[in-house]
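Lab notebook: predicted structure, single chain.

Context: the supervisor wants predicted structures on file for every construct in the current expression panel, including those that have not yet been purified. This is the next one on the list. No modifications to the sequence; it matches the entry in the shared construct table.
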Amino acid sequence: MVRRMETARSVRDAFDLTGRVALVTGAGSGIGRTTAEVLAGAGATVVCADVDADGAAVTAREIVGEGGKAESAELDVAARGATDTLVGHITARHGALHVLCNIAGIMIDSAIVEVDPDEFDRILAVNLKGVLYGCQAAGKVMVRQGGGSIINMASAAVLTPTPGVGPYAITKAGVAQLTQSMAAEVGKDGVRVNAVAPGFVPTNMTARYYRRPDGTIDEEAQAAVIGPMARYSPLRRVGTTADIGYCVLYLASDASSFVTGQLLSPNGGVSMHY
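Prediction complete. Output recorded below exactly as produced.
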C-alpha cells in the first residue's frame, strides 16, 4: 500500500461534513443543541429533533442565522415508529442519512432498591428503547446506502458507579452494549457505531442539583456542586457541551473511519479505562 502524504487540505477534508445529512435527537438544548451546531459548522445539513418542538426550532433557526443548513422536527424518541417516520421523511427530502446522533435522554434520581417501576419504565423507554429505535431506523437506511455513522450518547456513569443514579446508569450501560453489538453486525456494510460517555457537564439535566423551584439558578449551590467536581478532575475543570460536541464530530467524520464499537469518554480524566 502506498502511503499518502497528509496535508492541510487532507486534514480539513477528514473533518468536513459538507454534503452530508445528520439527524440529532435531543437538539433542543444542552449537548444535543451544541452537537447540532458543531455538525452544521462542519458543513452538514442537520435535522434538529426534540420532543420540545420549540427548542428544536430555535436551534435550527440559530444555525441557519449563522449561515449553516438546518431544519427542525418534533420527535418523541420513546414513541414506537416515530423515528422510523422521521427518518423516512429525511431520506425522502434529502436522499440519504449519513449521521445519526442519539442524544435525547432523561434522568431520575433514585436508589436502585427504591426506584419506582413506572419511573424506571419511563427512563428505559427514552434512554434505551429510544436509542434502539433510532439505531434501527437509521441503520436500515445506512446499510442500504453502504455507509454511515451512528453515535449514541452513553455516560461516564457506566464507568464509575455512583449512588443515587443507578437506574440512569443501567440504561446507559445498555446503550454501550447496544453500540458494540450493532457495530459488530453492520460493520461489513460500512456502517460505524460508536458511543460517547461524557463526564460531568453543566446542562439543564445536571442543573437539577442547583436549580431553585422557580427555575432560577442558585449560584452558591452551583459553586458547591461544580467546585468539587472540577477539583476531582485531573484537568481541574468540568466539561462543556462543546467538549462533547467535538467528540461527536470526530466520530461522525472520516477522521474516525477506522473506529467502530468504541466508547469515547471525555470526562477530564475522572474515569480512566482501557
